[in-house]
Amino acid sequence: MFKKNPELLEQRDYLRKDEIRTTNGMSYAKMTQLSELNEIDMVISQKGNKTKYLVNKRSYNDALDSMKYLITKKEAALMLGIQKDSVPKLIAAGLLKTYRKSSSRFELLSHTEVKQLMDECRGKVVDTRDIKGLRLHDALITYSVNGLSIAKINHFTREGLLNPLTDNENGNFTQNYYIEDELTKCIEIIKKEKQLAVGYFLKDVMAILKISEKKAWKWIEAGILVPDQVVILKDGRNRYLFAKSTIDSLVIKKNTSNTA
DNA sequence: TGTGCTGATTGAACCCTTAA
DNA sequence: TTAAGGGTTCAATCAGCACA
Fold first, then answer.
1. For the segment A80-116, what is each residue's pLDDT rounded down to a tens digit?
2. Would you tell me which CATH number, out of the four given (3.30.70, 2.60.40, 1.10.760, 1.10.1660), belongs to the domain A198-259?
3. Which comes out higher in pLDDT, residue A210 or A1?
4. Which of A4, A5, A60, A255 is most buried when burial is the number of CB atoms within 10 A of its CB?
5. Taxonomically, which superkingdom (predicted)?
6. Would you give the DSSP letter of residue A231?
7. Residues near A74 by Cβ (< 8 Å), separated by ≥ 6?
8. Distance of C1' in B7 from CA in A33, Å
9. Taking the CB of residue A199, how many other CB atoms lie within 10 A of it?
């Protein structure tokens, strides 16, 4: 009945407890706690041996609207569809703020802000047949080595560089699919940012200067190409890092000697 | 010059321990 | 009891190096 007439869903006065848990990540314990504090109006409906817990929609929405309603990182993770370990990463990236309550020893988050982040980063709802791309977790497994993180995915989504798709209008990050072409472009941005901050690797330098590996080593030995940082790996190998400015000046030198 | 090998690296997920 | 924190695992790519 609700599938045929979705507007009937909106008209309901009461929501099921399990419905609230899956759509908003609120734990059953939290609902009981809010009910005891009279923050939400929860009624028990008994039919035979089946017990139903129903929450008044208006009281629930009022409780959510209030900034008083703070949630733990675990609840935020449930709401976003990510692991609890990822929540601090979103906080560190400035995508979520934490609050302190005298009654709690834990850092808490605003339910409103978590919901807002999810709404901003939820994929565009399309038909299941039109879904393409990688799930959030698969994208992270594939591209974590390139510096892609859950925080970066959210940043890029907010900036419009990533346009995820979903077939669930109330879905969370696990239901988002990311287009591979868009992910590749974001990886390029991350790489450029890293090169600016950390520097170029020898392979990057070879490509920029258009020289072979042999020539690169000759230049290093001759002191023409001087690494700005040498990281000695555990197995004795060296990892060379060249600052962007070092390579830029070499490119200029190479170009002027070519034109002369 | 090209190719293949090895170990490092990355970050989320997972699992276990700790602390209040 | 439960959230947080720390260590480990997983899957993938990359850089350095050796060698044909």
1. 888 788 888 888 778 888 876 666 667 788 888 888 8
2. 1.10.1660
3. A210
4. A60
5. Bacteria
6. E
7. A84
8. 52
9. 20
